[in-house]
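User: Show me sequence and structure for the first protein, then do the same for the second.

Assistant: Starting with the first protein.
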Amino acid sequence: SLKPLNFLEVSHAGLSSLPVEVSQLVNLTSLVLKGNQLASLPALSSLTSLKLLDVSLNQLSSLPDMGSLANLETINLSLNKLEGELDSGSNLKLCPKLSVLEVTGNSLTSLGELQEAKMEHLAVVVANQNQISSLSPDVAANWPALKKLDLTGNQLKSVPGELGSCSRIKELSLVENPLTDNRLKKMAVQKAKQAKAVLEYISKNCPTTSPSGGGEAGGKGKGKGKKGKGKGR
């Protein structure tokens, strides 16, 4: 019945469930439920004023549809039991103001459809200690505001060359991944605080996907080689 309430925190309280009545608190801008035993969340679609949702350190294995949370800016899903693709069913891709996403310590294999969505304000993505095995090349174009990308401790064997064009990134972590490019693997450790240098290397040496079908690493150098061969023939 506390309709005017705009901030609610019930953290480290041993909650195993959240009453559906929480959806009646339509003026909430912040909902903090970290450190409980929540295995699921009720429908949150009516909380259209919500800007911050922190449900870290729970037992969540799935998420409700959050596509109507048009004002959501920050969501912390760290240390839960999320598996597979992140965006499956949650519709986070429909939250246009999302700027901070934290999913550390789950079992995610992909950042899902969020990578294919235009997220104009997404600036911080912290997804370390998961099972993420690939990153979409579309991230570079779809997340233009990206400043921090932490993919520490995942299963990445490579990263798309397009990532190198994310000029706003100031913090980039790819350590503790089974990268097949040994030079990149070393740079990820040695130049952990020099995102620009790592991005330049990625841009020049990692495979890219282009409409023309060219998916070769180091496009410029290889292009010149092909041209020279043509002249010889």
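Switching to the second protein now.
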Amino acid sequence: MTSIIYEPAGRAREYSELAANLYRGCDHGCVYCYAPAATRRSVEAFAKAEPRAGILIKLLKDCEEMQEKNDRRNVLLCFTCDPYQSIDARYGCTRQAIQMFNRHDVRYTVLTKGGARSERDLDLLAARPDLSTYAATLVFTDEEQRRQYETGTAAPTPERIAMLEKAHALGIRTWVSCEPVFDPAQTLDLIRQTHEFVDLFKVGKLNYMPEAKSVDWGAFARDAVTLLEGLGAAYYLKDDLTKFL
């Protein structure tokens, strides 16, 4: 690979073998986000997002290389930003990236809290269901609490759920990231609400924040497994949570 598509390490690798970050920073303003610290930027600077320099030219080279090598690994958009943060409407990097993936037979997933902003590209995902996956992060059913922790431009939870349902109806594979988990009851409720149109749930926990100490992670892990198996839903428990079983 060149400098855009890369192999994640550590916890991130549980989500995808490959990833690409189209933007430098993110305007969603999630207070639980690890990315400002990981990229060594202040929260204020990180919120002033912009496309990475030369992103589309470099990504094209990566796609050509993957096609030449018949590399079938999945590329996740994105880890340290959101492909459908509000500035994507201005720059359109995500749509152009998806078009490259489609042309070069590169498997990919878009993981977003952008809600309806992602609808503009569902036509491209639906055109290549053999390559595409649509994923959303779901954290809260309580919108007041969501706004407390997602202070910027992230979409309301019902909007994210609506896009998952629409993507699934278009024949696009879907999955949900149930992470971070602040309130196990809300996470379990989100699974109940969405299991009929979500193909896979990836369930984690809350890390690095003091609220994590108030959760019985063993009980949550057991309840999540019982619920998911009772619903017949496919799931993956992240290592951080599995160790509590």
